[in-house]
Amino acid sequence: MTTSNISLPRIAVLATGGTIAGQAGDASKTAGYKAGVVGVDKLLDAVPALSQVARIHAEQVASIDSKDMSTALWVTLGKRINVLLAQDDIDGVVVTHGTDTLEETAYLLHLTVKSEKPVVLTAAMRPSTALSADGPLNLLNAVTVAAHGSAAKQGVMVAFNNQIHSARDVTKTSTYAVDAFRSPEVGALGWVQDGRVEFQRAVVRRHTAQSQFDLEAALPSVEIVASYAGASRAAIDAFVAAGVKGLVIAGTGNGSVHATLQQALADAIGKGVAVVRSSRVSSGHVMRNGAAPDDALGSVSAGTLNPYKARVLLMLALAAGITDAAAIQQIFDTY
Ligand code: SIN
């Protein structure tokens, strides 16, 4: 679908599914619906005010529940965004997505989009058929941000419930509330309301046009293992036997690791597997050599990246041929 008002910015809306495109048999239902079934044209038709904000170019890239997001779809989406943003007649991109893995896709794009034009992801907690569906306003706000001059060079963003978050910092923090996203420690980048966009801080870490990463090489297998009371080494040993190239530990506290797992990780590192220590705690950072001896072990600390985002960065680093622990630590200190 394309709308016309030649003086407005032209924004590409790429739909991938999610609850924003969800449908329930009963308008009072906000759970037990099917995600990713409503097409992009119908999502746009539900927001007539979009025609006052931007000219829309729409594409249906996928129709999935984002729990089923794959690395293959990441590559398809990322490459399509780069093609669109290289066009003079596209001023920004909005991606509609499920909330469940939104933060992973957003961070992958933050590291692989090769443009300073805005890329904004949005989603919804209530299906499109629900009473008080949150998708239409989130979509309008996402397009408003993508069409706004001040959104350039901010990297990939998430517009949700009137807030604008950086892809690097944002995480889902509620299973049901419409204010489901937060950026722990650092807070939102800014806000959007009634057509007004304000940024309150800038993104300081490297991203998008300044990032060294791309989606050309195949993304290697990287898995996540949690540490907890009574943890066994079975999962780590199975992943290593399956040929995994990297492991991210969702450690306790400051990325501390159960002694049983720490021995399994030392063995994995000895076999050439890259290991990154993150934390299962939802805010704060993991200090290098803080709660585990990274120097002696040959592991890397994830800093403020949660396990899911640490996995994305480790996959991209390994795909770029960066395998040495010191070089991977440098990457985690930079992005
Ligand atoms: C999904 O992630 O696709 C389903 C859940 C949601 O969008 O809130």
From TrEMBL:
<keyword id="KW-0378">Hydrolase</keyword>
<protein>
    <submittedName>
        <fullName>L-asparaginase II</fullName>
    </submittedName>
</protein>
<dbReference type="InterPro" id="IPR027473">
    <property type="entry name" value="L-asparaginase_C"/>
</dbReference>
<feature type="binding site">
    <location>
        <position position="66"/>
    </location>
    <ligand>
        <name>substrate</name>
    </ligand>
</feature>
<dbReference type="InterPro" id="IPR037152">
    <property type="entry name" value="L-asparaginase_N_sf"/>
</dbReference>
<dbReference type="InterPro" id="IPR027475">
    <property type="entry name" value="Asparaginase/glutaminase_AS2"/>
</dbReference>
<dbReference type="InterPro" id="IPR040919">
    <property type="entry name" value="Asparaginase_C"/>
</dbReference>
<feature type="active site">
    <location>
        <position position="19"/>
    </location>
</feature>
<dbReference type="Pfam" id="PF17763">
    <property type="entry name" value="Asparaginase_C"/>
</dbReference>
<dbReference type="InterPro" id="IPR004550">
    <property type="entry name" value="AsnASE_II"/>
</dbReference>
<comment type="similarity">
    <text>Belongs to the asparaginase 1 family.</text>
</comment>
<dbReference type="InterPro" id="IPR027474">
    <property type="entry name" value="L-asparaginase_N"/>
</dbReference>
<dbReference type="InterPro" id="IPR020827">
    <property type="entry name" value="Asparaginase/glutaminase_AS1"/>
</dbReference>
<dbReference type="Pfam" id="PF00710">
    <property type="entry name" value="Asparaginase"/>
</dbReference>
<feature type="active site">
    <location>
        <position position="99"/>
    </location>
</feature>
<feature type="binding site">
    <location>
        <begin position="99"/>
        <end position="100"/>
    </location>
    <ligand>
        <name>substrate</name>
    </ligand>
</feature>
<feature type="active site" description="O-isoaspartyl threonine intermediate">
    <location>
        <position position="19"/>
    </location>
</feature>
<feature type="domain" description="L-asparaginase N-terminal">
    <location>
        <begin position="10"/>
        <end position="203"/>
    </location>
</feature>
<dbReference type="InterPro" id="IPR036152">
    <property type="entry name" value="Asp/glu_Ase-like_sf"/>
</dbReference>
<dbReference type="GO" id="GO:0006528">
    <property type="term" value="P:asparagine metabolic process"/>
</dbReference>
<feature type="domain" description="Asparaginase/glutaminase C-terminal">
    <location>
        <begin position="222"/>
        <end position="332"/>
    </location>
</feature>
<dbReference type="GO" id="GO:0004067">
    <property type="term" value="F:asparaginase activity"/>
</dbReference>
<dbReference type="InterPro" id="IPR006034">
    <property type="entry name" value="Asparaginase/glutaminase-like"/>
</dbReference>
